[in-house]
Amino acid sequence: MAPPRLEPVLLAVTSAALVAGGGAWFNGDGDLADLLWSLGTLSAVLPAMGWVLAALRRGRAGVDLIAVLALGGTLAVHEFLAGALIASMLATGRTLETAARRRAYHDLRALLEHTPRSARRRTEAGVAAIPLADVAVGDLLVVGPGETVPVDGRVESAAAVLDESVLTGEPLHVGRARGESVRSGVVNAGGAFDLRATATEQDSTYAGIVRLARQAGAESAPVVRLADRYAAWFLPLSLAVAGTAWLVSGSAIRAVAVLVVATPCPLLLAAPVAVVSGLSRASRVGVVVRDGGALESLGRARTLLLDKTGTLTRGRPRVVDVIAAPGWQPAEVLRLAASLDQYSPHVLARAIVDAAHERKLTLSVPASVTEEPGVGVSGTVEGRRVRVGRFEMPGGGQSWARAVDNRALLDGAAVAWVCADGQVTGAVLLRDALRYDAHRTLRLLRAAGISRLVMLTGDRAEPAREVGAVLGLDEVRAGLGPADKVAAVRAERDHAVTVMVGDGVNDAPALAAADVGVAMGARGATASSEAADIVLTTDRVDRLADAVSIAVRARRIAVQSALGGMVLSLAAMGVAAAGLLPPAAGALLQEGIDVAVILNALRALRVDQTARPALTPDAEALVRRFAAEHVDLQEVLEAVRGAADRLTDGPGPRALAAVEEAYRLLTERLLPHEYAEEHQLYPALAPTLGGPEATATMSRAHVEIERLSRRIAAHLRLAHDAGGLAAGQLDDLRSCLYGLHTVLCLHFTQEEENYFSLAR
């Protein structure tokens, strides 16, 4: 490989010789012109020979050999202008390749440039700078404005404002509240904050990504595999045509003319430039690819194997419902549970606290907190003795409590019961829910050419089959260990190029066994990231669809550029062999072919507008607003379902009060939200989605929501006129409430998958 700065110098020398020789020829000094052109030719011979030898050392056929023969041939037959043109063409192509490579790896180099070297640790004696290797789990660190977060940790200050663009490619700043996780490598875009280290330097997210980036060299053989395959027949064919033209005509000039137009710049540069450009595009959307060979294989993949937990699902439990006992409200049940769980390290407790923060509930500081592993946590909250967990509790035989257990069994959810002063106040249901972007991702993957989607999971068969049915997967294999996953990957590889996606330590062997291993590196284990060929640095599975689309497009452009250039070269070779194209004219023609195919290859750097709809800034702001409102409106959904459940016990005052509270929340919070979506969000999304018809089904759901709400209002008017709910109203009113709850859940899910997942 030539030194990094050789290409622009060679371009300057060959261009100067070509122009100066042209000037001398126009002035009538042919001897000086030939001298200058021959010097330009000679200046390219040695570098070209160096490229040939470098290719041979790497075990490749060395398609640069045609360029060397063409340069030598022009000197031998005194076609100095043709030699100077070839030299200039070769230098131009190499310079274009270098520029494309430099642009392609700008984002990967940025990872290395942002690597922190030290951290500031807070102790009783003050704040002291320490080497990054000395940071231990549990250390309290200080991250100043503009500094890079040194290790993975949790925010210990009130809030932190972060720039995560180095990892995710997203330019918007992100706010993190106290207790939220922060990945190493992101930049503090706000004031100083305290960080509690949860990992050492070597185990942190950023260190694993940097290790991967250092291995992502595109100048090595994998990037040009495509060119090598085509060179296997193009090189001998070119030499055969040149030799035949010489033998038949007896003219060495014809042979040189054939070699001139056969100079394989399209083969040498177009395919690598397209693949390297694809690497650049991938890095900008938060996808780090180990090398061009991995990108090329991804572009040929037809089978995709996915882990479930952390890949198709969120990888952590999430509150899906809060059910209140008679006389309690779901928001108060959640607030009590979250206040106590603030002091618990349990994963379910963390989810309950996160849900309370999302709903903007004000939490109290608990006292006398104790925790019994596997059972739950107890303590005092606002003078009440509160317990949260899975234990036998008074009143557990009530009908509503039995219904909670039945629902948890049917939904595959965990239950955290909440008791206050010995009385059951409610229950929190938690489940590892599907990612919002999972459906869209799988649709995009199929559109990109993936014909078979298989889920491999160690989870039980029942929840695994439910996920597979919801997502429309071709096959689901449950209850698998690491060895079983490896065997499944190897079996699929016998039929097609196979991609495996996972995020845990147990996925690492399967990632290594696949043709292409993809790790969810944002939260995944270091082992899986290091075993993978591709790492998604942001916690979004839809980036996988982006990566596949980029790979397919880059490979298509690479093949198109290489084959198109060779077809044009072959046609020119036939004309040159017939003696109709002299070497100088052939060099000019080949120059035009080379520039055309390289510029075509550089199209891989551009964004493919068909891959993902691009929201306008205003539309994206609206999407974020309504997505946040969906979280707040979970209380309304819980109230609607809770009111329907209350009607099971009969038309008493409590049932009427529950229905009235649900209707109040509908009119004050939910219906205004739906009205704003209809008149603000949907019109803003219509241009991106292709017109108002794209949101027509969602608008129809709004009509049904309003119809059911009016029907509930009519029942309430009848109840007020009669002094209470009548037995004859129960069936229809319960049907309205359950129906409304179902419509709302489906409607929210559709909006989150189809619209909200478009936001960055």
From TrEMBL:
PROSITE patterns assigned to the protein according to its UniProt record, in alphabetical order: ATPASE_E1_E2
GO cellular component, one term: plasma membrane
SUPFAM superfamilies, A to Z: Calcium ATPase, transduction domain A, Calcium ATPase, transmembrane domain M, HAD-like
Any Pfam family: Hydrolase
Domain spans labelled P-type ATPase A: 114-213
Principal location class: membrane
Keywords, comma-separated and alphabetical: ATP-binding, Cell membrane, Copper, Copper transport, Ion transport, Membrane, Metal-binding, Nucleotide-binding, Translocase, Transmembrane, Transmembrane helix, Transport
GO biological process, one term: copper ion transport
Chain ranges of the Hemerythrin-like domain: 623-758
NCBIfam families to which the protein is assigned, alphabetical: ATPase-IB_hvy (TIGR01525), ATPase_P-type (TIGR01494)
Stated family: Belongs to the cation transport ATPase (P-type) (TC 3.A.3) family. Type IB subfamily.
UniProt name for this protein: ATPase P
